[in-house]
């Protein structure tokens, strides 16, 4: 059945899974590189506003709940696996919505990349550090980039869907 929005055939479910696996592999390879080649808290300046650094995050985004007593590891692990199951369901159900599925694939890849860290190490490995003067953005990784871009695309997809619906009703 052609995609109702662009006249193209829907992307096969397996392609989304393969894309996610590729992104997970990229995330894990980059984390492994920094884990093996940097000491904890070691920084390497790349640009006046960007460094590589090896840090560990036991919490979520912006180190949310990082100071917990350890329960947060399991909470975020279950949350990531639950989100993955739900996303896999949505990918099958909405296969004709290519941009929506791409957005979900990015989020799923990022979630699983960080779930792997939590299972293997008990924390997430971060290594990208942006700052301006004394103002620092929390360090992050490839999985976090996937989640962020996926979330932005998901919002954009919804805005575009609403606009299409309004145009069709006009």
From TrEMBL:
It is an enzyme of class 3 (hydrolase). The chain crosses the membrane at residues 12-34, 46-65, 71-91, 98-116, 136-156. The active site is at 126, 144. InterPro entries: Peptidase_A8. It catalyses: Release of signal peptides from bacterial membrane prolipoproteins. Hydrolyzes -Xaa-Yaa-Zaa-|-(S,diacylglyceryl)Cys-, in which Xaa is hydrophobic (preferably Leu), and Yaa (Ala or Ser) and Zaa (Gly or Ala) have small, neutral side chains. Its EC number is 3.4.23.36. One of its GO terms (molecular function) is aspartic-type endopeptidase activity. Its main location: membrane. The keyword Transmembrane helix applies. It is a multi-pass membrane protein. GO terms for biological process: proteolysis. Pathway: Protein modification; lipoprotein biosynthesis (signal peptide cleavage). PROSITE patterns: SPASE_II (PS00855). Keywords: Aspartyl protease, Cell membrane, Hydrolase, Lipoprotein, Membrane, Protease, Transmembrane, Transmembrane helix. It is found in: Cell membrane. It comes from the Bacteria. One of its GO terms (cellular component) is plasma membrane. This protein specifically catalyzes the removal of signal peptides from prolipoproteins. Belongs to the peptidase A8 family. This is Lipoprotein signal peptidase. It comes from Advenella faeciporci.
């Amino acid at each position: 059945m052609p995609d109702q929005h662009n006249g193209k055939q829907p992307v096969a479910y397996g392609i989304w899974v393969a894309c996610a696996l590729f992104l997970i592999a990229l995330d894990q390879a980059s984390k492994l590189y920094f884990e093996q080649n940097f000491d904890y808290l070691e920084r390497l300046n790349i640009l006046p506003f960007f460094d590589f650094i090896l840090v560990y995050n036991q919490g979520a985004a912006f180190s949310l709940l990082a100071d917990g007593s350890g329960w947060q590891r399991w909470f975020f692990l279950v949350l990531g696996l639950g989100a993955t199951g739900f996303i896999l369901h949505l990918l099958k159900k909405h296969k004709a919505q290519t941009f929506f599925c791409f957005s979900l694939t990015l989020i799923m890849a990022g979630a699983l990349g960080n779930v792997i860290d939590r299972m293997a190490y008990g924390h997430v490995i971060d290594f990208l550090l942006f700052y301006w003067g004394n103002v620092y953005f929390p360090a992050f990784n490839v999985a976090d980039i996937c989640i962020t871009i996926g979330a932005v695309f998901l919002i954009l997809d919804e805005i575009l869907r609403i606009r299409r619906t309004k145009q069709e009703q006009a």
